[in-house]
Amino acid sequence: MKYLAIFCRWVFGLVFMFSGFVKAIDPWGSAYKIQDYLEAAGMSFPDGFVLGLSFLLCCFEFTLGMAWLLGLFHRFSAWAGLLIISFFTALTFIIALTNPVSDCGCFGDALILTNWQTFFKNILLLGLASGAFLFRKKNRPSYSPGGEFLWLAICAAGIFLVSLYGYRHLPLMDFRPYKVGTHISTQMTLPEDAGSNQYNIRLYYEKDGQVKEFTEENYPWQDTTWIFHSRKVEMISSVKPPIHDFSLVLLPDQQDITDEVLADSAYTFILIAPRLDQADLQTLMEANDWADGCRNAGYRFICATSSPPSVIDSLSRTHGLRYSFVLADEITLKTIIRSHPGLLMLKDGVIHAKWGFRDIPSPSLVLEQPSAFALARLTTQSRRYLLMLTSLTLVFVCYLFVHSRKRSRARSRYTSRKVI
User: Fold this and answer.
1) Dist CA 139 CA 413 (whole Å)
2) How far apart are CA 25 and CA 28, in angstroms?
3) What is the distance, to the nearest Å, from the Cα of residue 409 to the centroid of all Cα atoms in its chain?
4) Inter-axis angle of helices 27-40 and 2-24, nearest 10
């Protein structure tokens, strides 16, 4: 039973750590999902408040998972974990019944679960939490209260810095369908083994003034005394390609240039600004240099937004914006890049690079040799991944070292008392 309790504690802790980590690397994505739930509940809060909730949620989940995994404040964390997962199990059951949002968002974009899958996942976690909770008093603290607090502070500070980086720049890891290296046209087609949409078809027939419901398998097609009344079709599940809503409509003539852009063998630079009135104004104005540089180099430069044409015209005249605008879906633009605005570099329909507005380089550095610059950026990103993994490994090794030293001292004290 002791090892079973340890197994429950470790699995529960790892799941919470993973959930908190994938939310932390993409705080804007977590904020968008929280906003979806709030809007489904008829509530509305400022973006800053929702973003703050995103930071708190990912830090709490990751830190609680680490507490379970390392056995820190084991009694308090056992109570907190059981209460939290009990609440979310009940909540996800209601969400599964009502289906206000199709994707739960519990693992960010790293792992997409339906609402029913999320509910059953929480049932499993509730069982793990209950098993660990029953044996919580048998766990002995591995550290002093000060040591436990220090480990939790290190975990909370580390995951907060990861979130802060994702907020100010771009996520360290990109799990969305628009990550660098993606061929958009390929992702817009369904694979051959993807299946098809599933429907629930109900047929209603009338006889002797009464209407009865049938299915396609048992409807009275041979009984002419039944008269067809109506039909109701409900989609059970839909099959969509990873990218199904990418569309670019050039203003002012409303021309769809999606295929033209994706087939262009030259470089295309797209400034992504979901809402122009909320975008960083300095970046919008500095994009004039990019537009001029692309025009001289023979490349295309456009700004994709979901703002109405009246807002586009007003900002263009007021601030002298010298580039073309295309209309696109707001959710799609927020999915492409977590920055407002951000810059996307395409060639032959392949995403070669992405920059948040704080990291957009000078056009003179990129336009001379775009491919070399994109490759250098990929190398830099790989080094960041390596640095992050190395840091996590060092923290874990430090924990094992300190833990083994404490166990060794405890064993020595026990041996000394036995000899005496």
Assistant:
1) 19
2) 9
3) 44
4) 90
Per residue, the 3-state secondary structure of 46-91, as one string, reads CHHHHHHHHHHHHHHHHHHHHHHHHCCCHHHHHHHHHHHHHHHHHH
CATH superfamily of the 249-368 domain: Glutaredoxin (3.40.30.10)
Torsion sign across C-alpha atoms 93, 99, 100, 103: positive
| The pair of three-digit structure tokens given for residue 117, joined into one six-digit string | 């899958």
Nearest 5°: phi and psi at 165? -65, -45
Rounded Cα gap, residues 81 and 127, in angstroms: 11
Which tokens go with 8?
Answer: 């429950």
At which residue do the structure tokens 């550095």 appear?
365
What's the pLDDT tens digit per position in 300-352?
999 999 999 999 999 999 999 999 999 999 999 999 999 989 999 999 999 99
Identity of residue 154: I
Structure tokens at 189: 């087609």
47: tokens are 């973006």
- What are the domain boundaries of the chain? 2-168, 198-237, 249-368, 378-420
